[in-house]
Amino acid sequence: MALDHRHYGQSGGEPRQYEHHGHKVEDLRAELDALAEHEAVDAGRLGAVGVCLGTGYVMWASVDNPRVRAIAGVAGYYRDTEQMRANDPEGFDAKVAQGIAAREHYQRTGEVITIPAVALEGDAAMTLRDTFDYYGTPRAGVPNYTNAFAVMSREHFLPFDVQRAAPRIAAPVLMIHSERALSPQWARRYHDALTVPKAMHWVESKGQTDFYDHPRLVEESTDRIAEHLHTHLG
User: Fold this and answer.
1) Helices (H), the chain
2) Reduced to 3 states, what is the DSSP secondary structure of residue 18?
């Protein structure tokens, strides 16, 4: 099962293009509950797989959640907000304040202030060439994609910390990463903090986004994930 989170795609939820980690974790937990209740599903054999930032959402959705019996993350963005704030305290706090102001503006007026989700110039949620080449071109284009990011998201997105989930994970974890993917040092830190059966599989990539559509990387990652899930879910 895969889903459009609330605020995105074919799912409901206002405002649109609103990145709120609390909502996404709630949605994933609800998804797991729906799967567990489906007549064709064995509720005792549920696993969760995340890619990029979705890995962080999957990890937090698995915390204190006995439904999740195995977890895998592909090119995960294992955000360390303590380090991010230390690297640029003024910039970090300014973006959080910008998000709060945008949310208050929305509450007063109903207007959602947006910036591009991806761009190479100006303010945008994603500004790397690698992400632009994927999200900013027809390479990742789907009919309902909207290149927009609600600025009010920054109130919640900036403080979203993935590292703190690691010691609370109870299911076996497979991590697939690359030295050229996002923040390999954070992937190592997260792996080190896990206290469950765990494995780290390193592959070669050009960057982050080729994990999403390069046949070799997709095949290698899915084969490893399938092996991990079969091992731990039976």
Assistant:
1) 21-37, 53-62, 81-87, 89-109, 129-135, 154-157, 184-193, 210-213, 215-233
2) coil
Please give the backbone phi and psi of residue 146, each rounded to the nearest 5 degrees, phi first: -125, 120
How far the first Cα of the chain sits from its last, in Å, is 19
The tens digit of pLDDT for each residue in 100-134 reads 999 999 999 999 999 999 999 999 999 999 999 99
Distance, CA of 225 to CA of 74 (rounded, Å): 9
* Contact indicator for 25, 57 with CB cutoff of 8 Å: yes
pTM comes to 0.95
| Among 41, 58, 92, residue whose Cα is nearest residue 174 | 58
Rounded CA-CA distance 165/135 in Å is 28
The rounded distance, in Å, linking the Cα atoms of 122 and 133 is 16
Using alpha carbons only, give the angle 118, 113, 126 rounded to the nearest 5 degrees.
Answer: 15
Dist CA 70 CA 72 (whole Å): 7
